[in-house]
Amino acid sequence: MPEVRGLRRIACFISPHGFGHAARASAVMAALLELHPDLNFDIFTEVPRWFFEDSLGGRFSYHSLLPDIGLVQESPLRIDLNRTLDRLNRFFPFEGSRIASLASLLRERACALALCDIAPMGILAAREAGIPSVLVENFTWDWIYEAYVEKMPGLIPHIHYLNKLFAMADVHIQAEPVCERRFVDLTVPPVSRKQRKPSAEVRKDLAVPLDSKAVLITMGGISSQYPFLEDLEERAHVTFIVPGGAQDIEAKGNLRLLPHRSGFFHPDLVHASDGVIGKVGYSTLAEVFQAGVPFGYIARPDFRESPCLASFIEEKMPGISIAEEGFHGAAWLSRLDELLSLSRSEPAGPNGASEIARFLSLLGK
User: Fold this and answer.
1) Of the four listed, 213, 242, 288, 328, which is most buried by Cβ atoms within 10 Å?
2) Is the pTM of this model over 0.85?
3) Is 4 a domain residue?
4) Could you tell me if residue 133 is inside a domain?
C-alpha cells in the first residue's frame, strides 16, 4: 500500500445514486473532523454541493464529477435497466487521460488518500496518484448487476471490469448491514450522520402539537410523488413530516411539507419522530437505527440490496414491512397505530462512522 502522508487533506469519491452514499461518506468525514479539526476534503460527485454544506459546513472543496453510473431510476422504487446498460456502455472503461488528469489533481491538492463510497473511479485515480484508496461499502456495483444478468446479459463485461477495479482498493471497509461478506480490513456497525438539535426543539420549529405523534415519510434523495396526502389529513392526531413533499416549506393542518433542502437536518427529523415510513435505503436505515425509531419500511423488489436491509430491520430494529402498492394507495395507514405502538430501541454498539474515522487516523500515523 502507498504511504499515507499525514491526514491533512482527503479526496472523497462518492456515488451519486440517491443521497445514501453521500450521507454515509459525510458521516465518516464529520467523524474524521472530530479527530482532526484542521482536516480538509476534496469531494468528487454529482450529489448537490448543498448536501455537504448542510452535513459538514465549509471544510471541503467541491468538484462536480460523475464517478460511477449505479442504476438509472424510474422512481424511488423502480429502476430502468435499458437506460442503465446504455449509460454503462458509454461510461466504461475509464479513459486513461481522464484518470491521469484526476491523479494529477490529487497530487496537486496534496491528498493523503482517497475515500471511495463505491465509486471505482477514485480507486483508479488514487493508484495513478500513488496514494492509498479506501473502499467503503455494504455492496459493490458488480454484485448489484449480477442480479440482472439473466434479463440483461450485456452487463457481464461491466461486472468483470468493476470486480477488478474494486479489488484494487488498498483498504476495504464494510458497513453493516453487509450484503456480501468478504475478507476485509474492517467491518463496522451502521454508519449514520449524528443528531444535532434536541428533538423537542425540532418539534417546536415544526409546530408539532405537544399531544401529537410525529411521523416522517421519506423516500431518500430521489424525487417522489405522494398521492395520499389528503388521506393523511384524516389522521388529525398525527403530524406527518414529508421531505421532498413541496418546493417550499408548507404547513397544512397536520402536514409539514418540506423541500429536500429545508433547513432541517435529516437525522434531526428522524430523531424527532415517533415513527418513520420510507424506502429501505442504507442511510435511512442507518439514521433510523441510531435513533431507535419504529420503521415502516418499503422494500424495493427489483433491487438486490433490499432483502439484506429488510433482514437487518427484522432482526435488530422495531418495524413493520409495507408493500409498495400499499404505500402509494395509503393502505399502510391501517397499520399506523401498530407502528406507533412499537417501543423505541437503543442501538447496540457505536456509530460505524466513528470506528472508520479512528481506523483511518491510524493509517496517517
Assistant:
1) 288
2) yes
3) no
4) yes
